[in-house]
Amino acid sequence: METLAALRDRENPMEPDRARAVAQVASVLVDTAKVEVDYIKATGQDKSSFLEEPSTTTLAVSTGSPFPPGITGITQHRLQG
Question: Which run of H or of E encompasses 39?
Answer without folding.
Answer: helix 16-43
